[in-house]
């Protein structure tokens, strides 16, 4: 990371984190020793806020308590859309029914989902992710959610716009074959898969996503980028 | 109802009720003045029990507390499938994660759903029905649920078998264009839609279900049946 920053190359951190504000996400990474600041992060909630403002949408939020501050400047009175994130403990029967009633009561229901993840692992076991609850609301209301976050094309386009570069000038480095590599490639970027974190050996035979390169760690990815300059 | 019973015609009540045992369902209808007994009722939970026994399946139940007695005789130790019904208040974040973890941990996940309803109305407003939660688990585990209850073909076949008649000898009377009329017709039965209850005038232009007849009430349906004898 320090080598990239020293080189003057532009850099964005693209995360699907929706259980915390960017502030808290950045603090966590700083605590792990990373040189990172809030304005270098592209995350689903701010991307959703941009959409809400552009389209004059007032959201009902079904999100994690810790994410609510990201929507501080958004008008939420008399909602005309629902925004769903990984709400975790807030995914109660009552909250799901409330979000559903608001959606089904809209002339044209708008459901914005901060991701389409199926599940994730925590120390106390696997948990259903936002995608599962998104599917429940989609089915009940016969609507299609608009997904913000990786692998949505719009999400990568936001990151590129923030850096002021074209897809051809950018390279994505990530461990998730579909969300990181596939999403970036669909946007016209090149993408490298890192064999750490979420990487599984079966990813190398993925039916429809083929990374432009594999690396064993982030340092190797930086080597490749410098070789191409 | 009394005219049908007096005529000697065979009769079954087919319900998708999964918030109560057949005993309680029957008591409610008896209280409204209907001549009905438990052994005249075809309902999703007993149909599911038959499947569980036939296939040696031991269910983890995510159902309404009041439905649990229907599964009294089923072995539920060391579950190898999940049965989901309209669990209402039991659709908690913890219970959904538990059902999900069991399913995803199975070598071949089996999800049996006691219906595919999207939502229903109660005195305090609309509620998400079992179908929405079924979709959430289907998506998270990448499985397809086996649906017991109307409009599943198997459900109507059970009712016919219980009466000992062929589809051609039977007629379905119901107010739900897809679940009652469509389901029965797919099973080779004729079906009449009653213009009461769930009936909506737009049903008469349904894109793919066309009842064999319309009637304004149950008495008219009985008239038609007697005319055809």
From TrEMBL, chains A, B:
Cofactor(s) required for function per UniProt:
Mg(2+)
Enzymatic reactions: diphosphate + H2O = 2 phosphate + H(+)
Q: Where in the cell is it found?
A: Cytoplasm; Nucleus
One CC-aspect GO term: cytosol
The record's annotation in InterPro entries points to: HAD-like_sf (IPR036412), HAD-SF_hydro_IIA (IPR006357), HAD_sf (IPR023214), LHPP/HDHD2 (IPR006355)
> Which Pfam family would be a valid example here?
Hydrolase_like
Query: Does the keyword Hydrolase feature in the UniProt annotation?
Result: yes
Give the CDD domains listed for this entry: HAD_PPase (cd07509)
Note the SUPFAM superfamilies from the entry. Answer: HAD-like
PANTHER family assigned:
4-NITROPHENYLPHOSPHATASE-RELATED (PTHR19288), PHOSPHOLYSINE PHOSPHOHISTIDINE INORGANIC PYROPHOSPHATE PHOSPHATASE (PTHR19288:SF44)
Role played: Phosphatase that hydrolyzes imidodiphosphate, 3-phosphohistidine and 6-phospholysine. Has broad substrate specificity and can also hydrolyze inorganic diphosphate, but with lower efficiency.
What is this protein identified as? Phospholysine phosphohistidine inorganic pyrophosphate phosphatase
Q: Write down the species.
A: Cuculus canorus
